[in-house]
Amino acid sequence: MTELILATLVGAMAALLANRNIAVFNDGLRPILPENIEGRMDRRTLALTSFAMSFGLVIGFGIPFSLTAKILLIHSILLGTDMIGLSLPSNRWGNAGAAVVGGIYGAGLSAGLDSIVNIFKMLPVDVLKPLEQVGAPVVVGFMAFPALAVALQFSIKKGIVTFAVSALARQLAVWCNEQKLLTFGQSTVTLNQEGVALITGMIFLIIFAIRQKKPETDGSSPVDLAAIFSERVNRIRKQVVFFMMMGGVIAAAANLLVLAGDPISLQLLSEGNRTDAALAAAARAVGFIPLIASTAIATGVYSPVGFTFIFVAGLLAPNPWLAGILGCVIIFIEVFLLSSVSRFLDRYPGVREAGENIRTAMTRLLEVALLIGGANAANMMAPGLGYFLIGGFYVLNEAAGRPVVRMAIGPIGAIVTGIIANLLVASGLMSPPLMK
Q: 197 and which of 37, 143, 190, 329 could share a cystine (Cβ 3.0–4.6 Å)?
């Protein structure tokens, strides 16, 4: 019964955070939320984008892993609550609805997983596995946004250098992982290659920005970084109580083996290796610091699990009560450190000018990444026809004056293609595609 209550609380709170545009779990969604918050993307488009980016991962990734160990992989709950929260209007009634539906969703996952998978297997064309491809290029492509921001603000030459070094850093991380060069005790430390590349690019961007010192010529007071970074970090700080409650509940759930933060620790827990699972979770958390911190500072949207150290606390704590307290404290410290980073950047006037370029760079890269991901997903569902449909949706949208924002074309097109593919197979006009 305790496990069911915890899963319900996690689902309810995570859906509420997503509905209020405070935090989402999908790393690819986090940079998109400011488009809705600042009025450049409507809620319906945001909901469809969330659905396309997360739905396939819930069924094709989160739930299957959960079934192997009878422990819920956190992705299966929080990717679902992203969709639930962002599908409802962000108002008082939407908040309540998201919490209720999210709680029911969490309880439903905890109570039984087999029936959920069986329902989606009934479709003649598998749309779940292909939809995973929609968000696949986002995190990988997103790591290049500092290089584009450098090119836009400083020079294309410096942008190319930043991009090349970021790519090299990513490949070195991959090599270190493959060679298992980093170890901690009996466990191998795995670096998050996208996070390494992203922080490398951010270092270049910050260094170039710090070195760029333009004197004020109009006699006005210097503009601090609050308009670019600090304002968004403060937005996260104001919600710290929500994050602390979320961190406490998740840490307690991890302590009782209701949830696991990643597939590696999940499998170790299924084998009874709690300490090794904690070490694996810690290594993953260290690798994700640059990715989560950078996106949080740039977007004002946090992750409901923070840097994921709350899973380490949950696994190492002697009981769920202490785990919950540690989870609250850890999340508080993380949010506090985000503000410290922002205040540090605020000392350098050259950095503040990067704000618009960062937003522009993120938007452009997301447009390309989501279009590629949508095209790949569509072509898996309808070989040949998928590329045709996505290409047609894109050019027709441009010719119509862009009624749908560019970054939504890939996800929406993939969903429409999945519907069309199932209708064609059902009518006998197309054979079910063979998917590897």
A: 143
